[in-house]
Design a protein that fits this description.
216 residues; alpha+beta; minor pseudopilin epsh fold; 2 domains; 3-stranded antiparallel sheet; two-stranded antiparallel sheet; 5 strands; 44% helix; globular
Length: 216
């Protein structure tokens, strides 16, 4: 059984406590549903098989579990990479900045790409992933919670762009203002720790954005 994590977030820049309180309750709902669906699936499997009569319900439970589980996990990534008084650019000697420069050429190009992903029309997430086999970073749009996740890639920086993440503070058309607020509260230390956790799997040399081998 999963338990909802607590995140010490308040008085963020441009993201109100009222939004956070609502968002935490939504996250807790994903945790609750993940547990409920896991239990329901376990009940079907108690006799060691899924009968033909059980298959429709089993299939729907399995599909729904992917949505709820990803909703739970992505919110934990999202809340985890925020902090009060955050937002300064990553340190010059950070592994993240080196990986960004190897993958995109510069931090500014990476940020332009990431924020543009966040401004895409739709309901979902902007996620910066690490390819642990090649050490490259890439930004992706994930629809809802699960459509577009890249198999084997590791989320390093996660931004929720469902309207519930900002609608109490900004109008729907003001998503760019929310994205600016998000960056002003970023916890780059957490991002660095996520990347460093896979440092041993990243090759000493990787292929940069222009096709040339570069050290990261």
């Amino acid at each position: 059984m999963y338990e909802a994590k607590e995140f010490n977030l308040s008085r963020l820049n441009g993201i109100s406590d009222r939004t956070l309180e609502m968002h935490f309750k939504l996250y807790e709902g994903y945790v609750k549903e993940t547990n409920r669906l896991t239990e329901a699936i376990a009940e079907i499997l108690e006799d060691g098989r899924v009968d033909q009569e059980e298959m429709p319900a089993y299939s729907e439970l399995k599909r729904r579990l992917g949505f709820e589980y990803n909703g739970m996990v992505l919110h934990e990534y999202y809340f985890g990479n925020l902090k009060k008084d955050g937002g300064e650019d990553p340190a010059r000697n950070s592994a993240f900045l080196q990986a960004v420069e190897s993958s995109f050429g510069s931090f500014d190009l990476w940020k332009a790409d990431f924020t543009s992903v966040g401004k895409m029309r739709g309901v979902g997430w902007a996620i910066c992933y690490l390819d642990p086999l090649h050490g490259q970073l890439s930004n992706h749009w994930v629809t809802l919670h699960e459509v577009g996740n890249v198999a084997g890639f590791v989320p390093v920086l996660v931004m929720d762009v469902w309207e519930h993440a900002f609608l109490l503070d900004y109008k729907p058309a003001e998503r760019p203002k929310y994205i600016e607020a998000f960056f002003s509260n970023l916890n780059w230390q957490t991002v660095e720790e996520r990347l460093s956790a896979f440092a041993s799997t990243i090759p000493t040399h990787s292929i940069s954005h222009d096709g040339k081998e570069s050290s990261i």
